[in-house]
Amino acid sequence: MTKCPCLQRSDILSQKCLLRWIFDKVACACTSYVLTSRKIPKPLVMDIGLYIHIPFCKSRCLYCDFYSTTCNESLYDTYLKAVLLEITMRLCLDRKVRIGTIYMGGGTPSCLGGKRIADMLDYICNMLDVAEGAEITVEANPDDVTPELVGHLVRAGVNRVSLGAQTFDDQMLALLNRRHSAQQTLQAVRWLNEGGIWNVSLDLIYGLPGQTLAAFEYDVHEVLSTHVPHVSAYSLMVEEGTPLARRVARGELTPADDDLSRAMFERMLDILESEHFEQYEISNFAQFGHRSQHNSSYWKGVPYVGIGPGAHSFDGRNRRFNLPDLQAYFKNPARPPHEVEELTPMERANEAVMVSLRTKEGLHLGAFQDVHGCAAFQYVMREAEPLLQQKLLQQTDGRLSLTREGIFVSDMVMSKLMQV
What we know:
By secondary structure, the protein is of the alpha/beta class. The chain has 3 domains: 1-35; 37-298, TIM Barrel, CATH 3.20.20; 345-420, Arc Repressor Mutant, subunit A (Orthogonal Bundle). The chain has 16 helices and 15 strands. The chain has helices at 15-27, 76-92, 114-127, 147-155, 170-175, 182-195, 213-225, 243-249, 258-274, 293-299, 326-331, 345-357, 365-372, 374-389, 404-407, 410-416; strands spanning 46-54, 97-106, 130-140, 160-166, 200-206, 230-235, 278-281, 284-286, 304-307, 312-314, 318-322, 338-342, 363-364, 393-396, 399-402. A 9-stranded mixed β-sheet has the order 7-8-6-5-4-3-2-1-9, sandwiched between helices. Strand 5 (200-206), helix 7 (213-225) and strand 6 form a beta-alpha-beta unit. Helix 2 packs parallel to helix 3 (114-127). The radius of gyration is 23 Å and the shape is globular. Residues 1-40 have low confidence and may be disordered.
């Protein structure tokens, strides 16, 4: 077999040509086989989610504990090649699945720039069986969004963007070491809409140090002013090892107390409900038809493959975790260092309880009994009884779900229903 012509060039390698050559080597090492840009037909067995982790940020946020690095751009192209090689080895030869959703998260995927994102998605959509109309989401920092980036995303088939707004208070953004302004968030939404991407989600954080109820209410109204159809809202968590944790430990910062955080959340529920947003998951709100399909698949137990260092995968029985080590990943992206956890029947039942109760629909009791057995079902029903009486849970149409009051103590409710 002749060498890929790109390998003989001294300039930047052609991604598509290089990866097609790699796939040729893997799939047809003993035959003369020429890959074209046409998709390879595969029999449909099941839809899965594809998550791609982009572990790069231009700066680190005060609160973040996700795996990422602020290394320079010189590694971006190397990383793109590594990711495509892992995808090739793990998915291109599997004719049993179809990609139902694609999600690029991080880190900050948008810092790669529109062309690299488009190149990656072009490869995926040409080499894998991607469902027609599949939801393709890219996370972005507001200040990365430009008309040029939006143009690349649209041409690559991206139909959903998740923007990390966090707050519309510029002083608070500076405190959090966010690199965008409130005005840049508003401009980013406008550019996305003008470019043809209307399915935009905004992230908010509440319970920030020094944040008042009125300030958070202002944030919620600013979100509504953009007319985005999806909102994700998270309480500030002080994660061990983060700059925030160190500043809290030194007494420099004090997050909002539990009562104030709850008041913020309740006020947001009232406002979003009045604007026809449904709380379809504890932290996620959507107008009709705009639920995150990818994230919803996690809560439904749909299998997914995670690509990149720090990414998780789930095949219905086992969990896989790529180790969060970029340099180790570069050494062998075809088989990156990872750990596999085989879930026991009890662990699978507990996980079903946990992810289901996070959703509006809750736990389908009949399906739970069919999959996990009578003993697990009887345990859940026995432990649910006092929670039903306390009105933390409700049972309707054969489902258990959290009440509004139960949402505020959801961790406790879920733990009560989990076997030990």
